[in-house]
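EI: anyone free to look at a 579-residue chain?
SC: sure, send it
EI:
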Amino acid sequence: MNHLKKVIAVLLCSAVMTAPTAVMNTEAATFAQINTENVFVNQNTDYTCTLASNVMMLRRAAIMLGDPKWMTITEDKCRYDYGLWGSGGMICDYTFYGTTKNITVVNDAIRYVVGTNSRQSIKQYLIDMLQKHPEGIVYYDYDIPHAILLTDYAAEEDMFYCSDPNKGTPTKRVPVTNSSVNLYNYYRSSVWYIKSPELYLTSNSTATSGKQTAYDTDEIWEVTDEAGLNFRADAGIAYDRIGYVPCGAVVHVTKKKANGGYTWGYVNYNSKNGWIALDYATKIGNNTQTVKVETQKPENTNITFENKSSISADVIVLGEKITFKGAAEKGNAPYEYAYYYKRAYSSNWTTVQDFSTSNTVSVEPLTATMYDVCVKVKDAKGNIEKKYMTFDVKKPLENKSTVASRSIYLGNEVNIKGKATGGIGKYSYAYYQKRQEDDKWCLVKDYSEESTASFKPLKATNYNVCIKIKDEKGNIAKVYETVEVCPKLVNNSRVSETYVKVGDLIKLVAAAQGGAGKYQYSFYVKGESSSNWTTLKDFGYSTTAVFTAMKATTYDVCVKVRDFYGKVEKKYFKVYAKK
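SC: here you go
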């Protein structure tokens, strides 16, 4: 093998691949390769959808750059090692140093780059962006708020496709209609996209024809590169490494496929089926010839152990404890464990327990906020693996429900508004009422997500109202209110005479029943031909007023009654004066 071939072999053949910039292939992936399910991820917490969506965009870019370590791009790596998560969440513009080339990412507000609040303009902008950026773009809708990775636009379907990082959704490419975002939120949306380097898919790669066809063969090959060959899940350096085939191993190739400028062979080795790069192996015959096929040569690889640590809950309420549990697999026992945690937006870690054999520890956080956890596991040889996790501490469930009014008039409804803070997850509400003199509560509405309820009292008396709110963990908080139901206010006022002579004195007498509290009264008069009322007495506690008929005409008289809560009832009279 000449010197140039040895340099290229580093990319395809070493047990731990590193792709040098000098041999970087910026057209190293097909559409199918950047859309395999293990490219996509769900967000770690309710708050990291933008981070998870950027992780997926960076993974696809890394595959297109030929980086075999693209799966190491995770939320934890981007958040803790590369600093893409700042005190306010996902940073707007950044440079990612975690792949074979630096990747520069920028964030733009839709309204600034589109310029026109037109659905078609926004759609065309997104289509153009996806044509320029086959690695995808991150779309963020501030009103939900939520972010997704837009993967491509299928013109024949007139459909955008995406991967939604929301917990519980499938980690794969799906129609954007499966997500919750509004792609046409002109005023409150933005996109992240890769400014450099410029990335490409292989020239024959489309949304409908991205895979390259493998063809059958029946050949015997020997691995001749001294570094050995990586054993991959599919034909391409973007696919997962499932093992290692050492130099000198003889394998039976049953299929071949060209991808990324190399020829790949499908083989069975160590009871696994996978693909190797045949450019660094030598064909030694067909299967019809007598050739010893070595399929069980031990794999000479140094597998590091896996940190399988966990936490007891993703969300707890302030005042509760959370438990960290250390665990590991595939290493050299015995293990030791160390535990650390910090507030999510702090840079200072608190040591809960330094390395010891104790595999559990509990803490009671003092503040309601997001926390980061780091569990380190050390095996008997001193190897250390870290695992980062996140949990949220909520304030205790607090019921802040109210009634629209603490006093109403008989015949009207009592309107109730359920409201809560703190607790865990979604709330459900239940509403009850009873007359104050009764013992038994009546159900207005049983537990549901409806945050409002109402009922119409049947009697003028005080009613007790109870609102119960339950969170997803089953915690219940109650609030009690009292509503005074007043009888309908009735104006019983009268005038002393209806038919009088010019110069007579007319007496107005105010009276009322129902309503609430003490009454106040006001008195008014005007000539029938006038539009202006004369105030005889403004609101006060006096129940009488008088006026003199000064001319032969018809007089309009008005008496108003106002109760304690400001309810006003009017009563009108006519007084006829003659000479």
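EI: The radius of gyration is 39 Å.
SC: 👍
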